[in-house]
Amino acid sequence: MDSPIVTLTTDWGTKDFFAGMVKGRLYSMIENVRVVDIAHNIEPFHQGNASFIVKNACLGFPEGTIHIIDVNTIEDKDTSFVVVRYRGQYFICTDNGLPYSIFGNDFEMVVQPNVYQDSNFYTFGAYHLFCKIAKLLADDTPMEDLGVRVDSLKQSTPLNFVRRDDNLLCYIQYIDNYGNAYLNISYDQFISILGNRQFVLMVKGNKVSCISTSYLDDPTPEHNHKTAVLLTVSSTGYLQIAMQKASAQQLLGLYVNDFVEFTFKD
Question: What pTM was estimated for this model as a whole?
Answer without folding.
Answer: 0.87
